[in-house]
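Input set for joint prediction.
Command: fold jointly, output tokens.
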Amino acid sequence: MARVVPDPKPVPVAITRANVWDVAIRWSDGHEAVYPAPYLRRACCCVVCLQAPVAEDPDVHPLAIDAVGTYAVHFEWSDGHAAGVYSYEYLRGLCPCPSCTARALPDHHRS
Ligand SMILES: [Zn+2]
Ligand SMILES: [Zn+2]
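tokens >
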């Protein structure tokens, strides 16, 4: 496996729909991952969702995905919720791929 040099501030270079439900994100450091939509939806950290946790809806999917400036992504969801803005840093931290979840602890090995 190629050695991955972490980019301190990776940004998404492509955000596409892997299928109706899932969102595929390719990052500036070459990382690629598929984020299941219900997982992303539940990870919404807007004020509304923080106050009233979302019930899990396995059919939820994004209706629209827009960039917000150069730092975040806005999702409009099929359940009518459109207040969530996900910063790039937050999105990257949510990455559900095996290599990211394996190093969920802060990594201080960069030289
Ligand atoms: Zn929300
Ligand atoms: Zn990952």
